[in-house]
Design goal:
Layout (H helix, E strand, L loop, with lengths): L2 E4 L5 H11 L1 H10 L1 H11 L4 H15 L1 H14 L3 H8 L1 H5 L19 E6 L4 E10 L6 E7 L5 E7 L8 E4 L3 E7 L14 H8 L5 H9 L7 E7 L4 E8 L3 E6 L5 E3 L14 H11 L6 H8 L16 E10 L4 E5 L8 E6 L1
Parallel strand pairs: 1-4
Antiparallel strand pairs: 2-3, 2-11, 3-12, 4-5, 5-6, 6-7, 7-8, 8-9, 9-10, 12-13, 13-14
Organism: Chenopodium quinoa (Quinoa)
InterPro entries: C45_proenzyme-like (IPR047794), Peptidase_C45 (IPR047801), Peptidase_C45_hydrolase (IPR005079)
Protein name: Peptidase C45 hydrolase domain-containing protein
Length: 350
Amino acid sequence: MEIFEVGPCKSSYEMGYLIGERFSSLIKSRLATDLILQTQLRPYAETQIAKPIIDSLTENNRSKFPRYWDELVGIAEGSSVPVLDIILINFRKEILAFMPKNEGANIPEDTPDDCSTVLVVSDSMAIAAHNEDANVALVGHTYLIQANLGNGLSFTAYTYAGELPSCAFGFNSHGLAFTLNSVPPREDEIVAGGIGRNFISRDLLEATSSGDALKKIQSSEVSVGHSYNLIDIPKRKILNIETASRNRFSVYEVNASPFFHANMYLHLQVPQIQDENSSSRQKRAASLPQESKEDFLSLLGDIDDKRYPIYMSGPTLYTLCTAVFDLDGPTLSIIEGNPKEGKVTHSFHM
């Protein structure tokens, strides 16, 4: 997995352009292997019913986050791919919810971004360990961006090819880090044309503290709900924030009792889809030891449930890597392969 250091740049567009140019072949490869894009998003985008949804997403997100929108356009033009394709993959969840269901059609279904996270803050340790799970199309299509902004801020972000940094996890020079988990609200809980999850997480990379990050999340007017694990290194604090449309959110401060989060709302009262995969992982995690860092890695590497393992290796969903944030290091370690084996491929001092 390549690391690209970029900036300071004259503009957000330039930063996006340089990222797109550097990873042009990887972005094109991702677009060519993404069956959801090819069979659902692109055909839908050509219809009349899609136009108002895509237009409102574009207008609202460009208005709220003009710099990040310029960055997105830069990624598209730097990689020489259509801007519409980059828009579609960055707003995948916000668009798919409104597509007509093709009953009986032989097309691939979208898969949840089934990440698993275990968090703890006790006297002896403060750790956030996270499996980054995604569709098979993302295998081999990720990179790390180390960005230096003109205002002196820098961030490191694990990034899906063609998407804004980061829909996965990252940290910045203010000592603020995060990981993300999707949550599946019912379709009638999703607001058309709201703020995209990728734009909110891009904004979190520039948060100055957990308090600032909380404000960014709470004022985001999201289209689709999400779960955020905010890691405040200076304060040695971890917060889990669950969000839903219409400005609903709930904040839980992690303590000495390990907190496992799959892809279900746990403390925000929102009607949600009953996802058997997520509930199975939640139950399995509750049955495993959670007393040490090694226990957490063993938990995230668990494959006992053959149908819904916590560590995923196909055929549709894969654990791309495991990120371990140790607040007392403070370090971020990235493990590729089953985290039980603990083979760290990248390590960063935060």
